[in-house]
C-alpha cells in the first residue's frame, strides 16, 4: 500500500489561502479586482476593525449567473481564461480562480449576486469552505460580497494580525491604488462608519489624486502622455515640490494592474535627476499600456512583480517621457489648476 494521496479539496483550499490571503488587505484586493473584471462602474467598500471583523464589497458589474455561483467558489474555477494561449496574453486582473475558494476557506462569506436586471439573484453562504445556505434572493445586477471573521478557523494566522490601525493602513493602500488605477470607476470606502475615500468616477485622474493626496498635491502634478510603437505612457507626475520620503508615492499601473517594478521606478527617478532632494520620491501615477504578450504577470498570486520583455527599450522610453513632461512644465511652480 502506497502512502501518497491527493489532498482533499478543503485542505488544498486552506493551503492555497495561506498564499493568497495574507491579511484583510489581500482579500480586499482580490474582491476589487473581481469587481473591476466584472465591468463595474461603482464599487462600494465597507470595513470594520481593519477588515478583520467585516469586509463588504458591493459592485454593479456583470454579476454571477445563479447556476455558476457554487462553481465560482471552487478551486481553479474561472470565467477569465480557458486555454494555455490565454495565459500569455492576460487581459483581466484575475485568472487563477483561487481567490474565492481560498477566502471562503478561512472566513465566513456571504455572496449575493445577480447577472440581470430582474431584481432577483442568488445568495450563497460559505463558512470555512462549507456551504451553509443557498437560495434565491433579491438583488440588483452586480455582486455583493460580505466577508466576516477572517481567519476565525486559522488561529495561527489570526495571531499574526497587527493592530486595527495597521490593517486599516493596508486596506487604505489597496483602495487608493485601485482608485488611482481606475478614475472611470466611482469608489467609496468607509471604515467603522467613517467615509475615508470617495471618487467621482468621471475618468479624471487629477480628481482621484485630489481625493487621495489632497488638492495641493493634485495641482502640483504635470501630465504625462507619450506613445511608442510598443508602449504608451499616461498619468500624472509631481513637480519636484511634491515629494515623499518613500517610494510608495509612486503608483505604477501596467495595463491597468497595480505592480511594482524597478524597471520603471529607476528611469522615472533618473528623469528627475538632480531636481529631487536626496532620499525623496516624486508623487506619481504612471499608467503603462502594452500588448499583453510583452509583460508577464503570471509570477505569484500575492506578489506584485511583473517581467517585461524589451526592458531596456521600455526604460529609455519612460525616462524620456518623464523628462519631456517635466521639461515643459518645470518653470511653472504651481502647476495647472485642478479641473
Ligand atoms: P478569478 O478572478 O481568478 O477568475 P476568483 O476566485 O476571484 O477567480 O473568482 C472566480 C470567478 O467568479 C470569476 O472568474 C468570475 O467569473 C466570478 N466572480 C467573482 N467575483 C465576481 C464579481 N464581483 N462579479 C462578477 N463575477 C465574479
Ligand atoms: Mg479574482
Automatic annotation (TrEMBL):
Top-rank lineage group of the source organism: Bacteria
Keyword list, A-Z: DNA damage, DNA repair, Endonuclease, Hydrolase, Nuclease
Record has DNA damage as a keyword: yes
Keyword Hydrolase belongs to the record: yes
A biological process term (GO) from this entry: mismatch repair
Domain DNA mismatch repair protein S5: 209-327
GO cellular component, as recorded: mismatch repair complex
One GO MF term: ATP-dependent DNA damage sensor activity
Functional summary from the UniProt entry: This protein is involved in the repair of mismatches in DNA. It is required for dam-dependent methyl-directed DNA mismatch repair. May act as a 'molecular matchmaker', a protein that promotes the formation of a stable complex between two or more DNA-binding proteins in an ATP-dependent manner without itself being part of a final effector complex.
Protein family membership: Belongs to the DNA mismatch repair MutL/HexB family.
Protein name: DNA mismatch repair protein MutL
Amino acid at each position: 500500500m502506497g502512502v501518497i494521496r491527493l489532498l482533499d479539496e478543503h485542505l488544498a483550499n486552506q493551503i492555497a489561502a495561506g498564499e493568497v490571503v495574507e491579511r484583510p488587505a489581500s482579500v480586499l484586493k482580490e474582491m476589487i479586482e473581481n469587481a473591476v473584471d466584472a465591468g463595474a462602474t461603482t464599487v462600494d467598500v465597507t470595513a470594520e476593525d481593519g477588515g478583520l471583523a467585516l469586509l463588504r464589497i458591493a459592485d454593479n458589474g456583470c454579476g454571477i449567473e445563479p447556476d455558476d455561483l457554487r462553481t465560482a467558489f471552487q478551486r481553479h474555477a474561472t470565467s477569465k481564461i480557458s486555454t494555455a494561449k490565454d495565459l500569455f496574453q492576460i487581459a483581466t486582473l484575475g485568472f487563477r480562480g483561487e481567490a474565492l475558494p481560498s477566502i471562503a476557506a478561512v472566513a465566513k462569506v456571504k455572496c449575493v449576486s445577480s447577472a440581470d436586471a430582474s431584481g432577483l439573484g442568488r445568495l450563497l453562504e460559505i463558512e470555512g469552505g462549507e456551504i451553509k445556505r443557498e437560495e434565491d434572493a433579491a438583488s440588483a445586477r452586480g455582486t455583493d460580497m460580505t466577508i466576516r471573521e477572517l481567519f476565525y478557523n486559522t488561529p495561527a494566522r489570526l495571531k499574526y494580525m497587527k493592530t486595527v490601525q495597521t490593517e486599516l493602513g493596508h486596506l487604505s493602500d489597496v483602495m487608493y491604488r485601485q482608485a488611482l488605477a481606475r478614475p472611470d470607476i466611482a469608489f467609496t470606502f468607509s471604515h467603522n462608519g467613517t467615509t475615508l475615500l470617495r471618487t467621482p468616477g468621471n475618468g479624471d485622474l487629477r480628481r482621484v489624486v485630489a481625493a487621495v493626496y489632497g488638492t495641493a498635491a493634485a495641482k502640483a502634478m504635470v501630465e504625462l502622455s507619450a506613445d511608442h510603437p510598443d508602449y504608451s505612457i499616461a498619468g500624472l507626475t509631481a513637480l519636484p515640490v511634491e515629494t515623499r520620503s518613500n517610494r510608495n508615492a509612486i503608483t505604477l499601473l501596467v495595463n491597468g494592474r497595480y505592480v511594482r517594478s524597478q524597471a520603471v521606478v529607476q528611469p522615472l527617478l533618473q528623469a528627475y535627476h538632480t531636481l529631487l532632494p536626496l532620499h525623496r520620491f516624486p508623487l506619481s501615477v504612471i499608467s503603462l499600456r502594452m500588448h499583453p504578450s510583452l509583460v508577464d504577470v503570471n509570477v505569484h498570486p500575492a506578489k506584485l512583480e511583473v517581467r517585461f520583455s524589451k526592458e531596456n527599450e521600455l526604460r529609455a522610453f519612460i525616462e524620456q517621457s518623464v523628462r519631456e513632461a517635466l521639461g515643459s512644465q518645470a518653470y511653472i511652480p504651481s502647476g495647472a489648476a485642478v479641473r
